[in-house]
Amino acid sequence: MNGAAWLPEFDLEFGNTRKILERVPFDHAEYRPHPKSYTMAELATHLAWVAHWMVPTLEMDLLDMTAPDAMGSPKACTSSEELLAFFDTGIKAARASLEAASAECLQGTWSLASHGQTHFTMPRFAVLRSFIFNHAIHHRGQLEVYLRINDVPLPALYGPSADEGKM
Fold first, then answer.
1. Interval 31-53 mean pLDDT
2. For the chain, how many structural domains are there in total?
3. Would residue 164 count as lying in a domain?
4. How many CB atoms lie within 10 A of CB 138?
5. d(CA 20, CA 2)
6. Are the C-beta atoms of 45 and 39 separated by less than 8 Å?
7. Torsion angle, CA of 42/43/46/47, rounded to 10 degrees?
8. pTM (predicted TM-score)
9. Positive or negative CA dihedral for 68, 71, 72, 77?
């Protein structure tokens, strides 16, 4: 299976992610449900950042997060416009990289490291599933809880939404 075969799922999942990001109320940007939790703006930015990881996953064999040229964690976005622009930039590059990925590329291994220590090595297709797709879905679910607690209506994702009167 090549990268193009993943595009329907990519479009669905990251399209759903954008629907959630569009709802983030920046007047509640500092909301956090627990002192150990991200603020809403930090969580939304982290979620928007996940798509940015696809290019290094598909085009590098190893990513050392502490290397001088590594992509560092972004500063929390401060507006909906900034958040969506950041997300859209990552999605555009991620989709192009995924579409171009060969079956051989996806079967190849990829490693994540920091400070020269390898944390894991897996086939790229497994990294796409766990480290990118599932990771985004996980944080999207967290952000949905933040939105619900703050009385922000949730969009329909996989079916009708009670908030959109379609149940």
1. 97
2. 1
3. no
4. 13
5. 28
6. no
7. -150
8. 0.93
9. positive
